[in-house]
Specification:
By secondary structure, the chain is an alpha+beta fold. Helix content is 43%, strand content 21%. The structure holds L-tyrosinamide.
Length: 100
């Protein structure tokens, strides 16, 4: 009788490995009304009034603010959604992403 030897296959990747994360960054501009920035942050990033106001003011004063961290696909989708809300109103509001 011949024995078939089955080599144990190494796990392709540990199940515990986490996907790389991406930051969503809000950029300041001179034209978008503060209140509109706050509205967008609340709608797209589920912030409350207080959080949204602080983030908006940080971007306003420093030029940019990291607002959240997600997996790549979610970060890119949210950044585009938020940027598009501004575009619809004719504002240059801009959200970008970068790897953490
Ligand atoms: N600087 C804008 C103004 O004075 C407000 C603003 C804040 C715009 C943050 C964008 O990311 C931003 N109307």
């Amino acid at each position: 009788m011949t024995k078939t030897l089955v080599k144990p296959r190494p796990k392709v990747q540990a199940e515990t490995k986490r996907p790389p994360l991406y930051k969503v960054i809000l950029l300041n501009d001179d034209y978008t009304p503060r209140e509109f920035v706050v509205q967008v942050l609340k709608a797209v990033f589920r912030m409350n009034e207080d959080q949204a106001y602080r983030v908006m003011m940080t971007a306003h004063q420093k030029g940019a603010c990291v607002i959240a961290v997600y997996v790549r696909d979610v970060a890119e989708t949210k950044a585009k959604e938020a940027t598009d809300l501004g575009k619809q109103k004719g504002y240059p509001l801009f959200f970008t992403t970068e790897p953490e």
